[in-house]
Amino acid sequence: MDTTNERPAPSGISRRHLLIGGAVAVLAAAAGGGYYLWKQPDYSSGEVPLNTLLAPGPLPDESLGDPNAPVVIVEYASMTCPHCAHFAETTFPELKRKYIDTGKVRYIFREFPLDALAEAGALLARCAGKEAYYPMIETLFRQQREWVVQQPLEKLLGIARQAGFSQQTFDECLANQQLSAGVEGIRDRGVKFGVNSTPTFFINGKRVSGALSPQELDKQLAPYLANS
Predict the structure, then answer these.
(1) In the CATH hierarchy, which fold is given to the domain comprising 11-224?
(2) Mean of the pLDDT values across residues 93-109?
(3) Domain spans of the chain?
(4) Sheet strand arrangement including 206-209
(5) Crossing angle of helices 153-162/167-174, nearest 10°?
(6) Neighbouring residues of 200: CB distance < 8 A, sequence distance ≥ 6
């Protein structure tokens, strides 16, 4: 394959991420989990106290919905995970219409990159800014098949340009070591809470794994909203 026109990756991603590959990211998550197993409480029961789950983390949470909603949903997802993309395309619109926009649910997306490319997508969403964060997440999931490819940087740059990135800001974002450490810290904190696959949801602190269908989501939320 001719790669003479392929733009070189930014130094931070090319050497430390994209060329190293996803195995390093997964091993880092496992190592973080081992650290927390003896250092922190055990959440193997599938329940995490809501005040613990929502305590400030390595990066600020970006949330949707009423801060005082009776239900809080925290989703841990990887930008390259097809099941996460399926949830984003099929169930999330219903979640937003029926529950977030009506004040019943506060929703928080947290990055759980399973590989270096997923981390690159997460970094771009963060760099896009507060107002563009969720639109960027939505776009990346909707166009996942286009950029989760062998040579992804040109595809990612094309998506990023639509959000106002230049070549320079794109490169700077992917090479931002502090932001990268923050995203990896979010993932490691998820490991502490028992996240070992994506997507994983916490509904008022109860851990639920797998890409919920709209019907499954309704069933999960019904006990919390019975009196609302």
Answers:
(1) Glutaredoxin (3.40.30)
(2) 98
(3) 11-224
(4) 63-64, 105-111, 71-77, 200-203, 206-209
(5) 120
(6) 75, 76, 77, 112, 190, 194, 207, 208, 209
Q: Are 141 and 92 in contact (CB under 8 A)?
A: no
% residues pLDDT > 90 (the chain): 79
Q: Give 167-206 pLDDT, tens digit per residue.
A: 999 999 999 999 999 999 999 999 999 999 999 999 999 9
DSSP label at 211? -
Integer Cα distance of 24 and 34 in angstroms:
15
DSSP tag of 193 = T
Mean pLDDT score across all residues of the chain: 86
What is the reported pTM? 0.83
CA distance readout (Å), 161 to 113, 147, 166, 170, 176: 22, 14, 6, 8, 18
- Tokens 């990346």 found at: 140
